[in-house]
């Protein structure tokens, strides 16, 4: 029994790394724009189909396609905010929420028209490969996804903390009017931050594809988990997104082991409710 629990813990941690990467994009967008991106799941679906097409039609391994898909999704996110969301909303938070919801509806239905509702999977040379670590069998693709996710999270933190562009993004997030007086254009920073947040989805899609399916509704599987992680870790907190992702991954894995696959997600809801009751601002959040 101890070995089974240990295996569930390891599997949960490895899965939580990719969850954290998906949530990082969401928490970045919230931290800068101060809105919840309702199109997050739909854009993850677009990224997964982009990675799948490169692999299925172009023969490009999903891991090797990561820079391409991340760059493509950055462009999609930047263009969406610059030419659609920003113009439709006119900077009003409520209008931005509705605009992202509209984008989600359009993308979901376009995917249904183009790809139908069929589920697709991709097998690579690493899909079924495992490492023997003592008594445990560890999935190689999940280890790769975990390590790359944490490296990308660290790179994103360094970019935000150490570069002039990152400082400009943080300045606009804290005080857009003051940043405007310093010569920073908030509308451009908003588009840039949105693009970076969506680029995280491009990276996550490539890391997920070797072990997960893709369909027009796949975004729904991850978006609720991502929202839970962001609130659990603290809205706008990078460390909170990482820790929250790992915690939710472990909770989901142990819940599936103890309660069964159908009832396993209940554990996520219980942890979520407990944190909101004990610390409403999240694990790394603070009252402003």
Oligomer: single chain
> Which structural category fits the helices and strands?
mainly alpha
First CA to last CA: what distance? 45 Å
Q: Give me the side-by-side strand order of the main sheet.
A: 1-2
Average pLDDT figure: 87
What is the N-to-C order of secondary-structure elements (H for helix, E for strand)? HHHHEEHHHHHHH
The fraction of residues in strands falls at under 5%
Radius of gyration: 19 Å
Overall number of strands:
2
Uncertain spans: none
Q: Provide the number of structural domains.
A: 1
Largest sheet: 2 strands, antiparallel
Count of alpha/pi helices: 11
InterPro entries: ABC_transp_permease, BCAA_transport_permease
GO molecular function: transmembrane transporter activity
Main location: membrane
Membrane topology: Multi-pass membrane protein
Helix-strand layout with pairing:
Elements: H1 2-33, H2 40-56, H3 66-89, H4 93-115, E1 130-133, E2 136-139, H5 140-162, H6 164-174, H7 176-181, H8 186-208, H9 218-233, H10 238-259, H11 266-278
Antiparallel strand pairs: 1-2
GO molecular function: transmembrane transporter activity
Family: Belongs to the binding-protein-dependent transport system permease family. LivHM subfamily.
Keywords: Amino-acid transport, Cell membrane, Membrane, Transmembrane, Transmembrane helix, Transport
